[in-house]
Each structure stands twice: as C-alpha cells, then as structure tokens.
C-alpha cells in the first residue's frame, strides 16, 4: 500500500540527508518514519511521541504500510522530545507540526542531554514563531544549510534544514555557508533582522512562494497602516510604529526579487 503524504510532509522527509539514523520527534501517525524507510532515506528510525495515542496510530500504520522485512528498522518510543534518545544513537531528527517556542525547548533539551552533537542534522517545520527559531539557531552555533517554503491548503509553511556545528566548523559541510559566523559578522543589524524574519537562503534562492507571501503581507500591512493612520489612540500610535518597521523589513526582503 502506498503512503499518502501531504506535500509539506513529503518535503520534510526528502530534506533528510540519506544514510542518517533519524529520530522522528512528535511522530503522530508515523507516516514520515515509514516513508523514510520505504524510500531508503534512513537506515533506521526511532519514532517518538509524548502520548500513547499517536504511537498506537503509528503502530497500526507500520503494520499496514511497512514491509515486514523493514520492521526491525523502526522503533516506537514514548518520549518528551529527545528525552528517550541516548547520545550518539541518532544522527538526524525531524521536528515538525508544533510551535516554534516548543521546538526551541526540544532542541535545548537535546543539547543538554547530548543527543544533539556536532554534525547532528535537524529538519524543522515550525507552525509559528519562525523568525524566533532562525534567531535561536543563529545564536546557538547551528548552520542553516537549506530552507524551503511552500503553500498548502491556504497556509504557508517553512521547512528548515540545519546542522549543529558545536566546536566542529566542518560539520556543516561547507566553509562559506550563507549563515556562518564570518558572513554574519559582515551583516548589518537590519540585514540580520530581514534574514531572521524571512530566511536568508529563501531570499537568495528567490523563492517564488516567499515572494508571493511577501507581496500579500506587504499589501495587507500597508492597508492596515492607512487605516490606523486615521486614529489617534495610544494603542494605534504604538501599532503604527511597529507596522512601519514591519513594512520596511518586508520591502527590503522584496528587493531581493528585483
């Protein structure tokens, strides 16, 4: 039986570097884990969730969708993030379908218990607070090596591929990565804010989905700015100040497409 993955989930799975033992954190139905094995992307997968219900759903899907000869290459674990992962046990992780702040807390815990070591790869798809996630990665010795943005069912999704450098500057596989320390040192604070907010790699790729998103956001913010300009309440004045900054950042990002 074929696996029916959404466009977003397939993109997430396809961004894993082949050959890495992978942790599927918050595995839910387990379909990404099954896809990774059936398509020979991961040699082994540990599918984890914080609740028994999703693990039971994943178990049923494994029974129906995964060939019997691959059953010994997947393991289900009840785990809060990286809690049940030992140091060196996995080489990559998928963390998707949850808010950015929760993703950050999961990564912090993985660093704390050494489940995440230099060279470790993460595929992240935050449902919210994407700029906060990018900022956290930049400030905590991660290198964003790739990023995709797609639209599905009327929503926009970011998928970030990042590698933890730690003390190993070769771990990212490139010495001139767009997000490394040397490049960052040459950026102005305004450029860094644009990159954190919209994704440096997406901007340099001239992602058509990002362009569509920016054009819609800019139009929406400019209309709101015009509407609020007619009001004189303290709240409106404060919002106008922040809106002006947001409009400037979106316009700066759109300049990459000109």
How would you describe what is shown here?
It contains ten helices and seven strands. The protein has 258 residues and is of the alpha/beta class. It has two domains: 182 residues, Vaccinia Virus protein VP39 (Rossmann fold, 3-Layer(aba) Sandwich), CATH 3.40.50.150; 50 residues. It has a seven-stranded mixed beta sheet, sandwiched between helices. α3 links the parallel β2 and β3. The longest helix has 21 residues. 37% of the residues are buried.
Largest sheet: 7 strands, mixed
Which of globular, elongated, flat, extended, rod-shaped describes the shape? elongated
Q: Name the CATH superfamily assignment of the largest domain.
A: Vaccinia Virus protein VP39
**Protein structure class:** alpha/beta
The low-pLDDT segments are 174-186
Q: What is the average per-residue confidence, as pLDDT, rounded to a whole number?
A: 91
Top CATH class of the largest domain: Alpha Beta
H/E element order: HEHEHEEHEHEEHHHHH
**Beta fraction:** 15-25%
CATH topology of the largest domain: Rossmann fold
The level of helicity is 40-55%
Gyration radius, to the nearest Å? 20 Å
Which quaternary structure do these chains form?
Answer: single chain
> How many structural domains are formed by the residues?
2
Q: Major sheet: order of its strands? A: 3-2-1-4-5-7-6
Named CATH architecture of the largest domain: 3-Layer(aba) Sandwich
Number of strands: 7
Short précis:
This protein is 45% helix and 19% strand.
Provide the fold topology:
Blueprint: H1 7-14, E1 22-25, H2 31-38, E2 45-49, H3 52-65, E3 74-78, E4 92-98, H4 100-112, E5 121-126, H5 130-139, E6 142-152, E7 155-164, H6 181-185, H7 189-198, H8 200-205, H9 208-228, H10 234-254
Parallel strand pairs: 1-2, 1-4, 2-3, 4-5
Antiparallel strand pairs: 5-7, 6-7
Helix pairs in contact: 1-2, 4-5, 5-7, 7-10, 9-10
């Amino acid at each position: 039986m074929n696996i029916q993955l959404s466009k977003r989930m397939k993109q997430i799975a396809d961004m894993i570097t082949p050959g890495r033992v992978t942790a599927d954190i918050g595995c839910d139905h387990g379909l990404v884990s099954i896809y990774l094995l059936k398509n020979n992307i991961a040699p082994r997968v540990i599918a984890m969730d914080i609740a028994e219900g999703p693990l039971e759903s994943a178990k049923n899907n494994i029974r129906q969708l995964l060939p019997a000869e691959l059953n010994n290459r997947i393991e289900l674990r009840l785990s809060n993030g990286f809690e049940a992962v030992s140091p060196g046990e996995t080489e990559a992780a998928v963390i998707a379908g949850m808010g950015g702040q929760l993703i950050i807390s999961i990564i912090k815990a993985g660093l704390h218990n050494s489940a995440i070591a230099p060279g470790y790869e993460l595929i992240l798809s935050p449902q919210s607070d994407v700029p906060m996630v990018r900022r956290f990665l930049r400030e905590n010795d991660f290198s964003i090596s790739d990023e995709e943005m797609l639209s599905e069912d009327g929503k926009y999704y970011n998928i970030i591929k990042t590698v933890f450098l730690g003390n190993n500057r070769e771990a990212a596989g490139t010495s001139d990565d767009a997000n490394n320390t040397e490049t960052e040192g040459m950026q102005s604070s305004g450029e860094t804010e644009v990159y954190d907010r919209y994704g440096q790699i997406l901007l340099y790729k001239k992602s058509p989905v990002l362009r569509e998103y920016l054009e819609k956001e800019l139009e929406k913010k400019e209309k709101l700015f015009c509407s609020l300009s007619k009001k004189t309440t303290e709240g409106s004045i404060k919002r106008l100040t922040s809106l002006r900054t947001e409009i400037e950042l979106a316009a700066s990002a759109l300049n990459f497409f000109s």
